[in-house]
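Customer escalation, tier 2.

The customer says the design service returned an amino acid string that "doesn't look like it belongs to this structure." They asked us to rerun it and document both sides in this ticket. The original structure tokens are below, unchanged.
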């Protein structure tokens, strides 16, 4: 009886801690949404409030009056994010397939090289990357923000770990015996087996690409090419008058698609996190 009481008390403590952490996680987003309905004066007088105001339409007019086009920003961000996500998940799965299915001499050194690349911060190579894109006249283009997503070391590592535990090599051998070509085997047999891992990495890649600011900011200089994060960052640079309510509304519009993606595909995120504990 005493053990049962201890376990119930421990379980209650776990629930309390989880609820507290959930509230801490939700509060910044809730405050951001509420502040998007308040005026700049109200935010300056009281930065944190849980009561919505009536300045949402006014903030939206200020937002669009600063050459802020939400539809254009959404479209540009969607093109980059969807293109980069497609490149990441497909080519990373293809690379992981080569590391698992084929037995070639330099397979382990190549995988070690991929792990080493994961340690290099993207900011280190950004200057050289910009100079290269400038010389081949690809600035103000979405291609430099989409095509490099083909090389995603962390996604390759995740896909490899999933394949080692979930892909029966006998199926691949049977397809070869039946005369199936390698790309046909990969596209029609391997990819369907990897659906949980692909869905998980697609979510993470989409969120990362959607929130990206540094590279788009240095590569895109034309206003019609701006993404949502760039537009919101430019709102903060008004030296004459800082419209905090409009800034919060811009931030809310920026993260809105991420909330939708999360709530629609949250089960894949949970499953993907569980997959990360599988040992290769």
């Amino acid at each position: 009886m005493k053990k049962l009481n201890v376990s119930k008390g421990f379980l209650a403590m776990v629930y309390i801690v989880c609820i507290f952490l959930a509230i801490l996680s939700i509060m910044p987003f809730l405050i951001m949404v509420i502040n998007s309905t308040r005026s700049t004066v109200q935010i300056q007088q009281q930065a944190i409030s849980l009561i919505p105001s009536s300045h949402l339409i006014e903030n939206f007019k200020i937002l669009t009056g600063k050459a802020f086009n939400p539809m254009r920003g959404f479209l540009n961000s969607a093109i980059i994010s969807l293109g980069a996500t497609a490149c990441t998940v497909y080519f990373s799965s293809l690379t992981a397939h080569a590391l698992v299915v084929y037995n070639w001499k330099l397979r382990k050194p190549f995988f070690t090289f991929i792990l080493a690349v994961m340690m290099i911060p993207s900011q280190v190579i950004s200057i050289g990357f910009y100079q290269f894109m400038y010389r081949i006249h690809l600035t103000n283009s979405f291609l430099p923000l989409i095509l490099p997503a083909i090389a995603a070391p962390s996604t390759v590592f995740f896909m490899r770990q999933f394949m080692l535990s979930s892909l029966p090599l006998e199926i691949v051998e049977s397809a070869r015996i039946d005369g199936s070509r390698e790309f046909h085997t990969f596209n029609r047999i391997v990819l369907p087996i990897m659906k949980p891992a692909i869905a998980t990495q697609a979510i993470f890649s989409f969120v990362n690409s959607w929130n990206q600011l540094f590279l788009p900011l240095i590569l895109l200089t034309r206003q019609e090419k701006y993404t949502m994060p760039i537009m919101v960052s430019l709102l903060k640079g008004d030296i004459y008058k800082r419209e905090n309510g409009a800034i919060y509304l811009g931030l809310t519009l920026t993260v809105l698609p991420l909330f939708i993606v999360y709530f629609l595909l949250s089960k894949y995120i949970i499953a993907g996190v569980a997959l990360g504990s599988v040992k290769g």
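Tier 2 assessment: The sequence is consistent with the input. Residues 115 and 151 are 12 Å apart (CA to CA). Residues 62-275 form a domain with the MetI-like fold fold (CATH 1.10.3720.10). Sent an explanation to the customer and offered a walkthrough call.
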